Amino acid sequence: MQDNQTILQIKNLDISFRTNAGVVHAIRGVNLDLQKGETVAIVGESGSGKSVTMKAAVGLLDSNATVNSGEILYTYEDRDGAQKTVNLLSLTKKQLRTEFNGQRLAMVFQDPMTSLDPTMTIGKQIMEGMLLHKKMSKEAAKARALELLKLVGITDAENRFRNYPHQLSGGMRQRVVIAIALSAEPDILICDEPTTALDVTIQAKILELIKDIQKKMNLSVIYITHDLGVVAKVADYVNVMYAGKIVEVGNVEEIFYEPVHPYTWGLLSAMPDLDTNDDRLYSIPGSPHNLLHEPQGDAFAARNPFALKIDKKAEPPMFQISRTHFAATWLLHPDAPDIDMPRELKERIERSRKEAAKYL
Amino acid sequence: MTKYVLKRIGMAVLTLLIIVFLLFFLVRIMPGNPFPSERMNDQQIANKRAEMGLDDPIPVQFVRYLWKLLHGDFGNGTSLYNGAPIKTVLSTCVKNSFRIGGMAVLLGSLVGLLLGICAALNRGRFLDGFCTVVSILGVCVPSYVFLIFIQYNFAYKVTLLPYFFDQTKFLHSSVAPVVSMSLFTMSTIARFTRNEMVEVIDSDYVRLAESKGLYGSRLVSRHVLRNALIPIVTVLAPLIVDLLTGALVVEKIYGINGIGKLMVDAIAGEGVDYNYVLALGILYSSLYIGVMLIVDILYGALDPRIRVSAKGGVKE
After folding, report:
1. Cβ contacts (< 8 Å) between A103 and chain B: which residues?
2. Do B212 and A177 touch (CB under 8 A)?
3. What is the pTM (predicted TM-score) of this model?
4. Which of B18, B56, B78, B149 lies at a C-alpha separation of 20 to 30 Å from B253?
């Protein structure tokens, strides 16, 4: 395994949507790196643009979307083993579908109840990608599909192969969706809230499964989620997204133990916690910025109890904290007053640090 | 699947029986005389009633009628065609109506499907808007207006088509009624196909198929069409029956000897012809039931959720 090889690099991505109400500037300069074999999570509230960013990479943007600028660079080995880098945004839909979708970038969607074709057996749906990309015989594809079904933890694969989606439970369907995503041996697996629609007991199983498969197949995984619990379980790096921008990025320890952006503080405080004395669950005040209107200054300022005067005027640049840790908040500016995270959050982080130390 | 089909057939037969029962009694309650009173005196009518068994208790008449019906006998007319056997009269009319109606169905649904698919695949563009306008026109304007339009332009101004229906030049004289009758079906199917397809194209499973690398005609034929067709089958069924049983006004205007015209004559003729009304009622109903039966079976073939029960499903 090669270390530190960037496989996907999103540079300065900027996307807007034409709607009846006007132009929504949904993605406002997103940068993101994914290294081979790593897991990156994109966290944010609904409408922060996390799904749109990844949909742009796989060519599934709705027809009213316009990519204003930016690149999504994907590095891969072609059939002769030569290294190649291509900007996915510059490809035609046909090129993207025939050469990249499925066999290089695969996607697992949020709702397994609706993401399988109700009129096709799951076996056929798994085989479809293989027959399309791998030029396999039907028998070979079937054998491989059965293998995949077993890999994703479906017992009685031979019978399940002939089942229709409605004959399976939600958890099983998500396993099938994962099997479909893996069928043409992709390099990158994009999981768009893969456990949101599942009940809690199944969630953990599915996350374990993806983790397990990632190791076996040396996949790079991108998680799109609003669930910090999921992030803590699976991610190496975390990107916190707000109003179409990444506001804080770091490895998982940095984000959970040393967060610096007030928005990340809010997200962490809003996580339910068993050991707290508070009788109320914190929630970030207000609602996400409406991107129909270009924000003035920092988009989070209106909801930010720690906002400085400058937050209302100018958008903060990315400040570097460590080699891997960056955040876009004026609080990091040398001239900024010394504001630390809320006391409750600090105590909580202390507690979880101690908790974690027990297991080391 | 066999069990499913048998169950549907059983239900269909039962429904038809109930309809025959209701029809029979309703016709007897209807006001009016079954015989042409202007041409027959009271004595003749009384004789005729006795001869046809109309003076017997109604339940007895019903059993007798049902018995004959089971042997494929609709009886004789009471006033129409001087009491000729209904079977012979009906067969000519049915043949005319079915042939013209069948062609109209075929033309309408094929063109409609095509238009709908084109519109859905070009959503929001010119072709989509064009199809919408055409289909709204087709639904709003009655078929006989189109017929008159065709008669005026292609029979009167340019003599391409005959003015009226001519049994000896069947195909040639069918063009006008077939085209005008197919427009409603075409428009309905086009509109429906377009909306269903658009919905399926936006569905999560089509997005998954795209993320697998499917695109273009392969994506449409494998994942979109089949899912969009299921509801279309349901709207198509009543349209087919409507067309097969003949558009009343179109048959009248174009002088086609079909069942639509026959129905009007049976009710609004010299007398209310009990047996014709009954026979036609049964014909309409059995057509509806038959087509619905086919639709149900087609549904099962198209949609595994109906065909396969969920008993094989195991919860995690």
Report:
1. 213
2. no
3. 0.81
4. B78
Are B211 and B157 a contacting pair, CB within 8 Å? no
Q: Which of A98, A164, A172 faces B308 most closely, judged by CB atoms? A: A164
The tens digit of pLDDT for each residue in B7-47 reads 888 988 999 999 999 998 888 887 777 776 677 777 887 88
**How many CB contacts within 8 angstroms connect chain A with chain B?**
107
Each domain of chain B, given as residue ranges in start order, spans 91-269
Q: Which is the CATH superfamily of the domain at B91-269?
A: MetI-like (1.10.3720.10)
Chain A nearest CA to B309, separation (Å): 8
- Could you give the ipTM of this predicted complex? 0.85
> Counting Cβ atoms within 10 Å, is residue B88 exposed (0-12), middle (13-18) or buried (19+)?
exposed
Domains and CATH numbers, chain A: 6-235 (3.40.50.300), 253-327+338-358 (no CATH)
- Cβ atoms of B58 and B28 within 8 Å: the answer is yes
- Supply the pLDDT for residue B311: 46
Q: Which residues contact A52 (CB under 8 A, 6 or more apart)?
A: A15, A26, A27, A61, A65
Scanning the structure block, which residue is given the tokens 């075929």? B106
Q: Report DSSP state, residue A318.
A: P
Which residue numbers of B have CB closer than 8 Å to A's CBs?
A: 123-124, 203-216, 222-223, 226-227, 230, 302-305, 308, 310, 312-316
Give the per-residue pLDDT at B70.
Answer: 86
* Contact yes or no for B298/B230 (Cβ under 8 A): no
Choose, out of A109, A115, A190, A203, the residue to mutate when testing the contact with B (most B CBs < 10 Å).
A115
A20: exposed, middle or buried (Cβ count in 10 Å: 0-12, 13-18, 19+): exposed
